[in-house]
Amino acid sequence: MFSALPGRGGDLPPQPPYFKDVQTAEFWLRRLAQPERLIMSGEQIVCFNQEIRKRHPQVIRDLAAHQEELPGVCIEEMLKEREFPSKPLYHQGQPLEQPFFDSLLQEMNLQGLESVCKMKYAYSIRSTSVRSFPSDLFITDDPADQEFDLFQETSLDPAEPLVILHESRSKRWIFAQSSFCRGWISARRLAVAASRRIWLAYLHEERLLTVTGSRLRLGYNPYSPGISELEFKMGARIPLAAREEIPEAIDNQSPIGCYVVKLPVHDSLGELTFKPALVPSAGDVSIGYLPYTRGAVIRQAFKMHGERYGWGGLFNSRDCSAFVRDIYRCFGFQFPRNSREQGLLPGNSFSPAGASRRRRQRLLEQIGTGAILFFPGHVMVYLGKHRDEYYVIHAIAYFGDQEKGDADGGCLPAPLNAVTVSPLSLRRRSGEELLMALAALIEIESADCISGS
Questions:
Q1: Which of 374, 432, 357 is nearest to 400 (CA)?
Q2: Residues 265-279: pLDDT tens digits?
Q3: What CATH number does domain 2-56+292-450 carry, 3.40.50.300, 3.40.50.740, 3.90.1720.10, 3.10.105.10?
Q4: pTM for the full model?
Q5: 133 burial class (0-12, 13-18, 19+ CB within 10 angstroms)?
Q6: Thinking of the domain 208-287, which architecture would CATH place it in?
Q7: What does the pLDDT average to over 404-430?
Q8: If you write DSSP's letter for every residue of 296-335 in order, what string do you get?
């Protein structure tokens, strides 16, 4: 089951109760000598992001610089990047037959591509899934699986900018490029701009509110159902309204005691427009980014502690790479979505490949809290050493139960399905310790360290 899920984590098994003190942010904060020392300035983070885009030009995109026209053959290549899985697939326990894939191919509307395609521009108006193919069916490679949808790529917050590349045959689906992913999105979840100029003006808003809690949910709004109880995840950024744009009342509520943000919505013709909305000033938000410190990394990580694991954003949750990405986007970083690309981030990088246990332990003792640790298919945030254990916090689906072996000589999977603190002595399903599986350790440090890379 887990071999089908590269790059998002979740190939690990329930852990016994370890020391309770390591399960709190306060414990790890007390162990830091200078928890609030600035690691990188805003200017250095901008430089760091430029290096990320250089290394991953097809993954992290500057949408404002996106081509306004593309040859149809280029978009066809994008549409064909993901092949239909060759293994048997299931929906609600029933096998999928060839007619399902034939209809999916028809819905992709390859025949609708023109020789030159003009881009359109949109914003998401609700949280939405990004799909590998234009279907919202829950597709698995195990008829009993209820957690890993193989068509799920990731999820987007409201107000996410998108370049529309193509439209499905039924017009129910849009194939679009975001700043960090590409895929099929339900057309109902988007508002399309009448012009690129309108879209760009919102994209270039400078005064932004950053969501610094695990989630921000707007209040119930009987006057504007489209934004009622709208939810954003950690790290989401929402443009603030200018003073002259703020009326005396918004949906029959005074803006006193609130931040006033501008949200994308549909107008009466179904096109993109913007509406003021209220965010209580007591909400876990920040004007601009948070200062990037080790203490802030710990506090942000533990705000998600105990939340459910969600592959690709399923169940309105996070998988391992989304957990890491959400923490770091609070400071202004633009990380790739998947762990495979995150493992190639710039910074101070260490490779323990082939290293002994002791050498790996020494490397961990040299790096700082907040460093990112990788092995194939999984990413974690390093916390530090306590007694004889090295601890991480991560979003994890399963680990390997040492007490229960399988026929292949490994361990049976035991569920965690949560953001949790674990020692690196935890086992994978293969029986290997996380410590011995580590393939890369990266400290997200000053961009000065990458100037010569």
A1: 432
A2: 999 899 999 999 999
A3: 3.90.1720.10
A4: 0.92
A5: buried
A6: Roll (2.30)
A7: 85
A8: HHHHHHHTTTTPBB-GGGGGG-B-HHHHHHHHHHTTT---
